[in-house]
Specification:
- The chain is α+β, with helices and mostly antiparallel strands.
- Among the domains are: 133 residues, no CATH class; 135 residues, Histidine kinase-like ATPase, C-terminal domain (Heat Shock Protein 90), CATH 3.30.565.10.
- Helix 5 runs parallel beside helix 7 and helix 11 packs antiparallel against helix 12.
- The relative contact order is 0.05.
Length: 399
């Protein structure tokens, strides 16, 4: 194992350890360093006394509380260190406790406390060295540089912690935003599927109800027509099942396995014919202008809006005739469904009409509904088409 990897492992172990245990061990280590002069008295000529040892212990023991009360601990050590130097029995060779509290204050304390403690220690070290006998210039440099290095290491630790917290906060914020986007996408998809299932079921059930009510009436007098009614019921049920399977296939992510695509505006003529054949409502289809490409969501919306409007006509309007108009212009498709019956007087008259408005708005279009100019009910939906010039620019790429 390389020294660098060993150091990283030890640092990681210390970061995850109990801080009180680490600080107690650090205080014991500093106390041992301070006590070396008593453990090896022959190596120096400085006088020794138990009062001096107590002053030295006062620079080490408070380190147990250095993270719980960094500024108060720094004050105690800052008072005990010059007292030990002035007492001179013995003077401190290295201010071990002072280095630890300077590092701690620089890493954990507010700016004014950090600056006050740094200036105080630099001034105190300089004044204390002046009272030391035979102090040489390199000793001034040594003490002042050790103080600055301890303070600089604490500043680096504070900056690194702040950077780590900022990165973690950003990661949490991005995770919350991603979760919110996912929840919003799920809600939108569920809303779309709910609208599709409403359109499919409402349309099919309406046709089946109409034919089922007509079947008993003509059963005795016109068996062939009654048989056609039951055939229409079966056809509507099969069509509803096929569309439901397609919708549920999307939920199960089975599109790659051959499920049919979503309905589009090209299916509107077939829809009109099916309503005419199964519901007894004469549906006339009119087309003006040259068809243009629609966005994918607008393709589905055009079909579903027509389906919902015709379903409402069959269920509520008591109409005998309906007209579907597709008016193509350069920038939009205007889809108009008009009947000769009766219906709501506003677009918010029912859930189906609300769904029409939401579908149109989701595609960047608009929807209106109300009484037609010749009576009956009319739904007008405007859907934007694809800008062919922009599409051509996208196909060609940048110049």
């Amino acid at each position: 194992m390389s020294p660098q990897s060993w150091f990283r492992r030890v640092a990681a172990r210390l970061r995850t350890a109990d801080p009180y245990v680490v600080d107690t061990a650090l205080a014991a280590l500093v106390l041992f360093a301070v006590s070396l002069q008593w453990l090896f008295p022959d190596e120096g000529d400085d006088p020794l006394s138990w009062q001096g040892w107590l002053l030295g212990a006062a620079t080490a023991v408070p380190l147990v509380w250095r993270r719980r009360a960094p500024f108060a601990t720094a004050w105690v050590v800052s008072a005990a260190t010059p007292a030990m130097a002035v007492y001179h029995a013995p003077p401190p060779d290295v201010v071990w406790g002072g280095l630890v509290v300077l590092y701690t204050v620089a890493a954990l304390s507010p700016a004014w406390q950090r600056r006050l403690m740094l200036v105080g220690w630099l001034a105190g070290a300089t004044l204390t060295m002046q009272h030391k006998e035979h102090a040489r210039p390199f000793e001034y440099a040594f003490h002042l540089l050790t103080i600055l290095c301890a303070y600089g290491l604490g500043t680096m630790a504070r900056d690194r912690r702040a950077h780590t917290e900022a990165v973690e906060d950003r990661a949490r914020r991005l995770e919350r935003e991603r979760a919110a986007d996912t929840a919003r996408a799920i809600a939108e998809e569920r809303s779309r599927i709910a609208r599709d299932m409403h359109d499919v079921l409402a349309h099919a059930v309406s046709l089946m109800v109409v034919q089922a009510e007509a079947g008993p009436v003509v059963l005795r007098g016109d068996p062939q027509r009654a048989e056609a009614s039951f055939d229409a019921i079966a056809a509507a049920g099969r069509d509803a099942m096929a569309q439901l399977r397609r919708i549920l296939g999307v939920l199960k992510e089975e599109q790659a396995n051959g499920t049919s695509p979503q309905p589009a505006v090209a299916g509107v003529p077939a829809l009109a014919r099916r309503v005419t054949e199964t519901a007894g409502l004469r549906v006339e289809l009119r087309t003006r202008g040259e068809p243009r490409p629609l966005p994918a969501d607008a393709e589905v919306a055009a079909y579903r809006v027509t389906q919902e409007a015709l379903t409402n006509t069959v269920k509520h309007a008591y109409a005998s005739r309906a007209t579907v108009e597709l008016d193509w212009t350069e920038d939009a498709l205007t889809l108009t469904v008009t009947d000769d019956g009766r219906g709501p007087t506003a677009l918010d008259g029912g859930q189906g009409l609300i769904g029409i408005r939401e579908r149109a708005a989701a595609c960047g279009g608009s929807a209106e509904a109300g009484r037609g100019p010749d009576g009956g009910f009319r739904v007008v939906v405007r859907l934007p088409v694809v800008d062919e010039r922009r599409a051509e620019v996208r196909r060609r790429g940048p110049v």
